């Protein structure tokens, strides 16, 4: 027979991850978007984008996919808090990061073992933003939001300028600078 404690930890982890399907992306909700995407929707597309892009400039795409799947994991506990733009919550970037770090560390302690360590390490690497993979994924995170904004503008005939304003000139890598420029060009047509 299996280890009942391990089975219980895995099941609890899956329930926590499942909460991300219920957490709607705050910026979209506050902007009046109908049927706004969930945090889970956002993370899934980021992972697929990372997969589809392969390994630009030697970036480890497998690591990027994993990082995409964990980068917002803490939001299953603290929610999707906004710290910039017109949709800000009354919380500093530092306080949000502290709450999210605690949530991620608690989740990782719950699942335990090498998996918990890997998730925590990937999350910390993303937050630090110092490795090629973390920089790539931070750009991918912002770009996924810009792409989603363009899709909502088109499908719901609405203006979402704040999402473009908060990301303008913020892309660090040439690939995402080009992708962002193309989205902005298409928006003006």
TrEMBL record:
<keyword id="KW-0460">Magnesium</keyword>
<dbReference type="InterPro" id="IPR006674">
    <property type="entry name" value="HD_domain"/>
</dbReference>
<dbReference type="GO" id="GO:0002953">
    <property type="term" value="F:5'-deoxynucleotidase activity"/>
</dbReference>
<dbReference type="GO" id="GO:0009159">
    <property type="term" value="P:deoxyribonucleoside monophosphate catabolic process"/>
</dbReference>
<dbReference type="InterPro" id="IPR039356">
    <property type="entry name" value="YfbR/HDDC2"/>
</dbReference>
<dbReference type="Pfam" id="PF13023">
    <property type="entry name" value="HD_3"/>
</dbReference>
<dbReference type="InterPro" id="IPR003607">
    <property type="entry name" value="HD/PDEase_dom"/>
</dbReference>
<keyword id="KW-0479">Metal-binding</keyword>
<comment type="subunit">
    <text>Homodimer.</text>
</comment>
<dbReference type="GO" id="GO:0046872">
    <property type="term" value="F:metal ion binding"/>
</dbReference>
<keyword id="KW-0378">Hydrolase</keyword>
<comment type="function">
    <text>Catalyzes the dephosphorylation of the nucleoside 5'-monophosphates deoxyadenosine monophosphate (dAMP), deoxycytidine monophosphate (dCMP), deoxyguanosine monophosphate (dGMP) and deoxythymidine monophosphate (dTMP).</text>
</comment>
<dbReference type="GO" id="GO:0005737">
    <property type="term" value="C:cytoplasm"/>
</dbReference>
<feature type="domain" description="HD/PDEase">
    <location>
        <begin position="35"/>
        <end position="155"/>
    </location>
</feature>
<comment type="similarity">
    <text>Belongs to the HDDC2 family.</text>
</comment>
<protein>
    <recommendedName>
        <fullName>5'-deoxynucleotidase</fullName>
        <ecNumber>3.1.3.89</ecNumber>
    </recommendedName>
</protein>
């Amino acid at each position: 027979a299996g280890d009942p404690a391990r089975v219980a930890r895995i099941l609890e982890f899956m329930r926590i991850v499942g909460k991300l399907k219920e957490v709607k992306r705050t910026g979209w909700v506050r902007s009046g978007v109908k049927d706004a995407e969930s945090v889970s929707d956002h993370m899934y597309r980021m992972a697929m984008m990372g997969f589809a892009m392969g390994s630009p400039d030697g970036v480890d795409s497998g690591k990027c996919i994993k990082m995409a799947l964990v980068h917002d994991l803490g939001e299953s506990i603290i929610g999707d808090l906004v710290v910039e733009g017109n949709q800000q919550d009354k919380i500093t970037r530092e306080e949000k990061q502290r709450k999210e770090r605690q949530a991620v560390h608690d989740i990782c302690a719950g699942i335990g073992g090498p998996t918990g360590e890997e998730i925590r390490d990937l999350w910390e690497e993303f937050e630090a933003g110092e490795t090629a993979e973390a920089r790539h994924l931070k750009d991918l995170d912002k770009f996924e939001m810009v792409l989603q904004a363009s899709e909502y503008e088109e499908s719901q005939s609405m203006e979402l300028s704040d999402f473009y304003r908060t990301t303008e000139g913020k892309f660090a890598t040439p690939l995402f600078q080009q992708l962002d420029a193309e989205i902005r060009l298409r928006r003006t047509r």
